[in-house]
């Protein structure tokens, strides 16, 4: 078990190194940083000075190493567009995205797993068929369209909930939260559902198909032949076995919530890192893009490690 | 050969296909028939848009700004012109823009899925068949890419490509960049499934029989294994098509997709969003409904195919 | 008092091709302490009866007629809740595959105690004591410790014991055992059958033992019911049915069973239901080009074969652990000889076949064929010629033919690859081969799934004969087939050897089959060649203890009728 986790940590490190390399390559090869940072009025001396200052005259490997070292220290470069340190901009924006992602993730996992179990156990019931059909519409409806429809219905027509922004936020020592005010909480509802809906349908469909697969296994037939009740079979025997594959995919889905936040944040003008990123893409603001990429990958690696630990906790075969 | 051909005439083959399990299931599934019919209708009307569409929305000569914001099936207050689905701010017929827009959406979708499928199936076959270090490298790359949701990968590729292209060419290459971005973000699914199926197939005795004869790895992979891993590929390709259409719409909606000179369904929705709150609901609604119908029909077909091709569910 | 009384049971599966009757009008009874064998070939409906008793028929299957009574209470047609009360409590079931019958995420103790508490309503402590006692009873050493372990920590045989313990939790009156030993090695198989026998005597449990294996029936059961295509054809005491069968099908089935005690010239083929298919060996022999060989020099000699497989890979070189699957194996095969290799699973016998055929690369050793070293892949010409001269018949007729290729292309592939024929001559040749193996030229246009297991094995044989090989490797060629089909295929192999002088390497775990087929036999255990003897000598006077043990574990089949045997 220990070697399994060690191997996973090493793999995670490898992933970060590769992502770091991609980010670094973007810096170096996409456009000319000097071009981007200096205006059109520049002297050769300016260029040389900046070149030395940025370390662009040094060998590739050294530059890469410095880039990584800087990134670890939180020095992610300066935004071409805003002229401020990227780390500062991201720190300012991150709480908005993280709060939105948490709300959506709870919604997606909670509702998704419950509906998945329900539709698997009552696979031929009318309600299950309705849920499955509706879920297919959910998968076919692009996130941005869901957002627009929700805004139209609940903000424009009914005027119950705000259509953009975070509402009133409280500053807790650098972390701005919307959890503590009514308007902040209200502002979270629509974007939270918009972001979580697609993941929820995916999780639900996954739980359902995995559970149906488990229910076909020999040990379930044998449990039935021993006279165990349907309840014991479904919840004691089938559910735990269903969770093993579900956890991996759910982990991945949760990670992608942060990335999908890009769309939701655009629709709701939510002041998070996703909106920051999409603006960066439009203006080819490479340092911001690279930093966002690394931020996402760190989160992913963290989520994957947690998933691995959960895996070991659930499956005894990995423990020996 | 002639003798064989005679015993299996075209009519016979057609009859056998008609009676095959897959066809039988298709004929007995209303959902499958309807979704197939809707998809076919939408694809055909997109392909033949220049013939079917009442106007050419990109011909400046046919535009009349006075026709702007005409509601559906109501005569315009100034010109008296009537449009089935209304017009947008510039007086373009919504129905025509939808038909032309769907062309772009479908083209991007098909091209991107073909690209992703080609790369994914090839790499999956190679990784699964040869195993070892080749497999490790390919699957590690796939794992890392899987870490990043396709929309993000597509955005990054898009951003990087934008950085490389001079401003004056950006519009021209945008469509191709979009196809590559979506295609490259979507090969992993194919590769993983094909690799898994290949691992199962390569241990079957028919592969050993072919090796025993002395067949080369290439002819075993593409002559024997490929045809046996195609059913899951077909299912993923269908579902990927729906996802690619949605991804294209999303990217265009975010303003990083196709240029406004060639609006796709996503672009139309983005334009329509601005008018939704001021009462011109039709500019958004009809493209949105078209997009939903297209994605839903393709998804339903994929869902049905997955069940129909799954031997365990018989 | 009769425990189970089944009368005129009919089970139907509606499908788009019409209603399929899996069981029609079957009757049988089970008394306390009796083991009732239910025997038949695949598709006979024997497992369906077991599932029908338990109320576990897979949808859309259902009981369409007849009655099932337990201790004179009618149980067919009970609702789900009432059935659940009966299942496990009064009637238990044991499945075929112990590897998949236990929940991998719960400890053996948890699974046992859950079932015990459910049926007997015992306290946690009492349930644990009973679970320990049960494990002890089914012969698991150190039961207190074993209770806390997970299924993956048990071997296959041990898991099947746990499955039996689970079936015994509530002192059931009837146990239905569905092929309980098919997935196990012979030695373990014998232990499990003994355990079932003991339990039946000791607790007066009635057992229905569903199996396809006549050896198991003859050695284990008290009464037997023979089924064919959903119908009971014969029923009676085991001694009577096996020794003096009345029905033609039972006779043909018994005559097809390979005998361990005596070598037959051919397997008898009392056909039943018009299933015999012609095999035109004379036609094949007429067109066969024989290569002259010297009778006293070996056609194939292997020297010091070795193959290791990595079990646990380590990132540090030298730290990986390996399993030596084949360890220093050498032997010669003379022209025209049938050379057998026997052993249990994991003995390395199949690996030897794959090393000789070049499917696995050798770690050490050489393979020499007709005086030429063929184990060096760099010698392309020698390898190419060798590929033409050897062919292989595989174990599983369902996986050895590419399901997405037409039979024409399957058989034509070796001919095309070696550029022997092309165009219409090739098609003609394939049609001839198909005629000769008894399938007819029309088979060329079909796909493998349109054929039965025995027919597929004939397609395999046609493919193997396509290049007119001199050496044939048969890797368990009949172990996936029903016994009557096995007899046909083995007769075909005998014909090939007699008429064409083909040399064969015959791999099998089934000693009676080996005795019928082989001239000399090598016994393998854990990758090593233990003993190499003329077949008759080996069976009469085995030299090593391991061989002696294998021979005692062989089914004895002493009471079987000799009618129709070609001795």
TrEMBL record, chain A:
| Alphabetical list of InterPro entries matching this protein | BPD_transp_1_N (IPR045621), MetI-like (IPR000515), MetI-like_sf (IPR035906)
Tell me the superkingdom of the source. Answer: Bacteria
The main location class comes to: membrane
Pfam families to which the protein is assigned, alphabetical: BPD_transp_1, BPD_transp_1_N
Q: What are the alphabetically sorted keywords of the record?
A: Cell membrane, Membrane, Transmembrane, Transmembrane helix, Transport
- Membrane-crossing segments per the record: 12-30, 100-118, 130-154, 243-270, 290-314
Family membership noted in the UniProt record: Belongs to the binding-protein-dependent transport system permease family.
Q: What is this protein called?
A: Peptide/nickel transport system permease protein
UniProtKB/TrEMBL annotation, chain B:
- Annotated ABC transmembrane type-1 domain ranges read 102-302
Its family remark reads: Belongs to the binding-protein-dependent transport system permease family.
Isomerase: present as a keyword of the record?
no
Topology in the membrane? Answer: Multi-pass membrane protein
Q: Name one GO cellular component term.
A: plasma membrane
Give a yes or no for keyword Transport in this entry.
yes
In its UniProt entry, what is this protein called? Peptide/nickel transport system permease protein
Provide this UniProt record's keywords sorted from A to Z: Cell membrane, Membrane, Transmembrane, Transmembrane helix, Transport
Report the locations given in the UniProt record: Cell membrane
- Membrane spanning stretches: 31-53, 104-130, 142-161, 173-194, 233-256, 281-305
Q: Which InterPro entries match?
A: BP-dependent_transpt_permease, MetI-like, MetI-like_sf, OppC_N
An example GO biological process term is: transmembrane transport
| PANTHER family linked | ABC TRANSPORTER PERMEASE PROTEIN, OLIGOPEPTIDE TRANSPORT SYSTEM PERMEASE PROTEIN APPC
Q: What is its main location?
A: membrane
Automatic annotation (TrEMBL), chain C:
One MF annotation (Gene Ontology) recorded for this entry: ATP binding
Where is the ABC transporter domain positioned along the sequence?
Answer: 4-254, 300-551
Please name the Gene3D superfamilies in this protein's record. Answer: P-loop containing nucleotide triphosphate hydrolases
**Top-rank taxon:** Bacteria
- Coarse class of the primary localization is membrane
**Localization per Swiss-Prot or TrEMBL:** Cell inner membrane
Q: Which UniProt keywords apply?
A: ATP-binding, Nucleotide-binding, Transport
This protein's membrane topology, according to the annotation, is: Peripheral membrane protein
Q: Please cite one Gene Ontology biological process associated with this protein.
A: peptide transport
Q: List the record's Gene Ontology CC terms alphabetically.
A: plasma membrane
Listed PROSITE patterns = ABC_TRANSPORTER_1 (PS00211), ABC_TRANSPORTER_2 (PS50893)
| Annotated family | Belongs to the ABC transporter superfamily.
Protein name per the record:
Peptide/nickel transport system ATP-binding protein
User: What organism is the protein native to?
Assistant: Epibacterium ulvae
